[in-house]
Request: fold
Amino acid sequence: MSCERITHIIRGDAPGRTTELNGFRLGPPDAPRKVFLQAALHADEQPGILILHHLLALLKTADEQNLLQARFVLFPMTNPLGMGDISFRQHQGRYDRASGVNFNRNWPDLYAAVSATVAPLLGDHADTNVQQVRKALKAWLDGMTPVTALQQQRHFVMQEAIDADYVLDLHCDNDALPHIFSVPQSAAVMQNLSDWMGAAATLMTEDSGGSSFDEVWSGLWIRLACAHPDRPVPMACHSATLEYRGQFDVFDHLNQDDAERLYGFLQEQGLIGGELIRVHPPATPAGTDLAATDMVRAEQAGLLAYRVRLGDRVRAGDVLADLIALDGDGAFVQRIPVHTETDGVVIARVSSKYVWPGSLIAKVAGNKTLASRGRYLLQD
Reply:
């Protein structure tokens, strides 16, 4: 067994510019299952880099002891293009400068790419159907010619994730408790992951409206199963976005613990052998509909003065924060209350207290679907 380093060279959009995308492969090459993990797709969200740094060390030790029962691919920094986005001594990294596209939005529609090809090939055996779909996906990817730097970066990543049974995308919020985004069809797996992760909430929907990286993998199998109810099409990929607290929560002691918890989850999924790294953690809240999470926004510019902390339970109508007016007759005197419209738990806030109209200032995870949420369920 060995740890194989992956290096992909991304040709830049300007002459003479190239970028390296680095990753790792571990585990038996003939293992029947595969796990793909990546971090910093939003390049300004970096706890996942340190988590995968620690997880890689654990996986290397497990590999040396012949404990890995799956193939593993890790990209600890999956967006080198975004890591290079530094302006006026401030790192950005959420949007591709060339196109304006959010790095975690508008990923290719895998169902549209292969549905017509695989429809006549689906038979009565689930495993064979999975193989046919993945073969078609590979052929589709192999036939692509990525042109821009962003297209190349995405192409390299998708080539590595295409046959994975688990796709875990490590992110963070601005200032938050750990939480998960996934699909209802993966509820049992995500509950196990939530317990290990110590998640404050698991937010579920089949389609958030943004074609985020994790959703395109699970969405493929959901839509194929729906289109072919007479054929056995299993949930062949459990994918999720893991939100590891806030942007400033990058510390060895914290992220080492996160890595060990993630390792324990992988063990309980039968992907790594050996004695369980620690006892199963306490149960966490069951998953809820993402449309039940109130994304609370400011309606005018102001300075935030929070009344709540992360983890606080609130009720519909409660004031989460006051906005101190910065102009007009009430400048520096008036306080405008900002309310939540749901009962739930405050799972995220913002660290920058100067906000402007439309700024997201808090997330409250509730249980009752909110009509106000609409079809686009992500924050940007």
Summary: The first helix runs from residue 47 to 64. Helices lie at 47-64, 80-83, 110-118, 126-142, 149-161, 187-197, 213-227, 252-268.
